[in-house]
Amino acid sequence: MTRTRRRRLLLVGSLLVGLGGAAALMLTAFKQDVLYFHEPSAIAAGDVPINTRFRIGGLVAAGSVNRPGDGLSVNFKISDCAATVPVRYRGTLPDLFREGQGVIAYGKLDAAGEFEADQILAKHDSSYMSPDTARALKAGTADACMPANMQAAR
Hints:
The protein folds into two domains: 30 residues; 114 residues, CATH 2.40.50.140. The chain has three helices and six strands. The protein has a five-stranded mixed barrel. The mean pLDDT is 82.
């Protein structure tokens, strides 16, 4: 092998090692920033690990909003018609937050099965419907846990 070929092979090899290292670092960074979404049914079934940050979504259960004395804390329950998960949050709630409203909460599940939220988002577009819900409505097997003003016409 000539000196030029050896130098070229060394350059290509070091470029491949560098690209592989950069790809590994990028994948590691992406893995740390991924936030999974879980429904209350999955949490009730025990499919979600505790003390791992994720998102939960559903409707605020009717009659579940409780505001302890300090004004910033709120306890409520998120439901997906099949299961309900208690949520604890301390902070300012969005203006659209109310019972029967769709919400998404970011946080962790504690050992007692209560979700400790650090951010709450209120969904404002009630015209969107998940594919599973649309199929259930079409088949006539949907649970009627949604408020009447949010239910789709059958």
